[in-house]
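F.,

This is the one I mentioned.
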């Protein structure tokens, strides 16, 4: 059965897109068929994967606006086993208001669920129908966070949104898979404290091994390719590989 993982944190710049792109590439590299869908109108997933999106090309946002099928926006084999549905950088974040189930329904009715082992949804930090569509379409949430003093607030805000999704009966199966510390430097006391605070609050089993600070992540993005290709011997590549395996283990 397809696993649909949404990468979300209400805090901006918390590593959502870097995690989405590199985990998708890691899973595809290990032989899974992976679809990455970029709900964020910043459109950074395409940039990070070296994909040019034409001005009038169909996107997930033109799908939400009712202009095309989701499948029409698919860019196949961006990298081996990895397909992308890109974002429209000019789309309005109010798209699909009160239609939070559009994405979930399309994944099922267009049989995209049958074509992939894993679907990864990158999300904007904003609280809007784009985020709700992603949360309603997913089975599990992965929350990347930078361990600094505002990270707890981003996580709390996301927890309230998850509660709203489940209390309205929009996606009762949605669960938090785990929290992923990114840009971690355990020499910094604050990073250690925040990691242990989250482990206490949500359970140590929910805290994934982190992604260490590594300039290769930013470099790979600029080069338009995943870090496992750009810098296969880097510590970030090793960390993403370990996290991908851990996700398989945690997914029950
Ligand atoms: N492990 C890492 N080491 C060094 N830099 C990193 C690492 N992870 C992410 N970054 C950098 O941090 C910045 C923010 O990351 P990213 O764009 O993935 O966050 P985001 O949560 O998607 O942001 P937004 O909320 O704007 O969508 C980027 O410049 C990225 O290159
Ligand atoms: Mg992003």
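My design for it:
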């Amino acid at each position: 059965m397809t696993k649909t993982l949404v990468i979300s944190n209400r805090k901006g710049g918390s590593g959502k897109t870097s995690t989405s792109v590199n985990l998708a590439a890691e899973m595809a590299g290990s032989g899974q068929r992976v679809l990455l869908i970029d709900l964020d109108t910043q459109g950074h997933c395409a940039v990070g994967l070296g994909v040019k999106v034409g001005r009038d090309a169909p996107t997930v946002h033109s799908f939400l606006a009712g202009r095309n099928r989701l499948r029409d926006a698919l860019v196949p084999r961006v990298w081996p086993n990895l397909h992308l549905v890109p974002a429209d950088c000019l789309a309005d974040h109010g798209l699909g208001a009160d239609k939070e189930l559009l994405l979930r329904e399309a994944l099922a009715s267009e049989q995209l669920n049958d074509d992939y082992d894993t679907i990864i949804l990158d999300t904007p930090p904003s609280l809007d129908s784009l985020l709700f569509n992603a949360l309603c379409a997913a089975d599990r949430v992965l929350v990347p966070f930078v361990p600094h003093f505002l990270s707890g607030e981003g996580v709390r805000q996301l927890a309230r949104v998850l509660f709203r999704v489940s209390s309205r009966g929009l996606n009762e199966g949605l669960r938090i898979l785990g929290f992923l510390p990114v840009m971690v430097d355990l020499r910094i006391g604050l990073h250690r404290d925040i990691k242990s605070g989250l482990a206490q609050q949500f359970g140590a089993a929910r805290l994934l091994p982190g992604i260490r600070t590594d300039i290769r992540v930013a470099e790979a993005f600029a080069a338009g390719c995943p870090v496992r290709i750009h810098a296969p011997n880097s510590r970030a590549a090793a960390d993403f590989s370990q996290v991908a395996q851990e996700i398989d283990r945690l997914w029950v």
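Residues 16-17, 40, 42, 44 surround magnesium ion (ligand 2) (CB under 6 Å).

Talk soon.
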